[in-house]
Amino acid sequence: MSMAQLSGAAGAPVRVLVCDDSATVRAALAGLIGAAGDCAVVGAAGDGRQALARIAALPGAERPEVVLLDLEMPVMDGMTTLPHLMALPAPRPAVIVASALTQRGAAVAMAALRAGAVDYVPKPSAAGGGLRDPAFRAELLAKIRGWGRMARGRGAGSAPTAMPAPAATLMRMGVPRVVAIGTSTGGPQALSALIRGLGQTEAATVPFLVVQHMPRGFTAMLADHLGRLGGPPCAEARDGEVLRPGRIYVAPGDRHLLVEAGPDKVLLTRLSDGPPENFCRPAVDPLLRSLAAPGIGPVLAVIMTGMGHDGLAGCRAILGAGGAVLAQDEASSVVWGMPGAIARAGLASALLPPAGLAAEIRAALRPVAGAGRAA
């Protein structure tokens, strides 16, 4: 069967083009991707100019669905290449950028997201196992599979085994004191869409806490990125801060973000070096457990796209403390692991895409319970 025939077959491998100036890295990535079985490398290039030429030379049905694009290359770097990829005729490939695990690399990766890239992968250091690092392999393949599936307009393929919890849970909660959002793979774009939909009026009434599985250095750049979207001001959380309404606090990389009740009923942030949970630090569960403590709630928890089940135990605690839970729907999730676990457990009052979650949050923050809520 030809590649053109494979491209239309059910379960066909996701077609990937690898663009990196290092021949060694290209070969390693091609081997890693090809060994997955459900992904196929259809081209490789040493710079952006070569990548564009490789894509142009391929028949339409064989063109990549995903481009893995290094940001630092000679001749034509990733940021220069990105607008050309965005200008390709539909269906355009989803672009995942690869950046160095540094503050500058994080800043450029966030700029690439604003310019049209769908996601990023931080290149692991040699000390951390390099491209052979199992965590890097799992993250890369999950993003390739997820964005390739999204490019084909398909959901994640595993229906929930439980219906959402009754929407009455939201009405019983009343107006939340805090909104806590947890996400992982595919999170930056999902968070961006949600925050764009929050607006200013309702969002000014409560603090927002965000846990995105990201390494140190990247979370500060994520906060800067989210703060540019026209929603509430956003910053990386610091230890001992008083939570202010109308602000977004992002858990810093390699620290758990917790909340405790302080004097005069104020809420304070605490950063913890406690052990990773669900293989992550920061993790969603520690934040939600802290928010379920007496004297803090009610809390609205929102679980978005991501691998694994981080947030599941924490959402049970939030519901037990009188809060409510929303989750991202399958069709809009790059990986329906975290929100899927919430759905299967029957904890979510609604399963919605990011824009729908934003509308539901706005409705929950209005004084009249239930006004304008999604069905």
Structure description:
It is a single chain. This protein has 375 residues and is of the alpha/beta class. Helix content is 34%, strand content 19%. The strands form three sheets. Strands 8-9-7-6-12-13-14 form a seven-stranded parallel beta sheet, with helices on both faces. Strand 1, helix 2 (23-34) and strand 2 (39-45) form a beta-alpha-beta unit. Helix 5 (103-114) packs parallel to helix 9 (218-226). The longest helix has 18 residues, at 134-151. It is elongated and about 65 Å long.
Q: Any key phrases for this structure?
A:
elongated, 375 residues, 14 strands, 19% strand, 7-stranded parallel beta sheet, 34% helix, alpha/beta, 5-stranded parallel beta sheet, disordered C terminus
Name the helicity range.
25-40%
Radius of gyration: 21 Å
Total helices: the number is 13
Distance between the termini: 46 Å
* Overall geometric form: elongated
Task: Output the structural class.
Answer: alpha/beta
Order of helices and strands: HEHEHEHEHEHHEHEHEEEEHEHEHEH
- Global mean pLDDT: 88
Report the biggest beta sheet as strand number plus sense, adding barrel if it closes. 7 strands, parallel
Instruction: Strand order, main sheet: write it out.
Output: 8-9-7-6-12-13-14
The percent range for strand residues is 15-25%
In total, the number of strands is: 14
Uncertain residue ranges = 1-10, 156-161, 368-375
